[in-house]
Every structure is written in structure tokens, then in C-alpha cells.
Amino acid sequence: MEKQVTHMPEPKQISLPIEGMSCASCVGRVDRALNAIDGVEDVSV
Fold first, then answer.
1. pLDDT, tens digit, for every residue of 4-20?
2. Would you say 45 and 30 are in contact if contact means Cβ atoms under 8 Å apart?
3. Rounded to an integer, what distance in angstroms lies between the CA atom of residue 6 and that of residue 10?
4. Residue 23 — very low, low, confident or very high, per pLDDT cuts 50/70/90?
5. Which of 2, 8, 15, 41 has a C-alpha 20 to 30 A away from that of 28?
């Protein structure tokens, strides 16, 4: 039986400065959009 080996890329942390966002609705929208990206494991807005 052959085993498949999956090489996962090294985890990276990216900080995206966002100015002028002042409402909870916008925070939620950005959070959901980033979490919808394939490969994203954690989001903090």
C-alpha cells in the first residue's frame, strides 16, 4: 500500500493594517471574508 505524503507550506502570519473601520458590522464582514480564503486557519480583526 502506497502512502501519500502531503507537503504543507510553512505557516505564515500576515498583518494587514486597516484604518477607519469603526463598526462591528465591518469587523464581522472582514473576518468572514478572510476566513473564507482557502488555507486561512485563524483570523483576528
1. 877 777 888 999 898 99
2. yes
3. 12
4. very high
5. 8
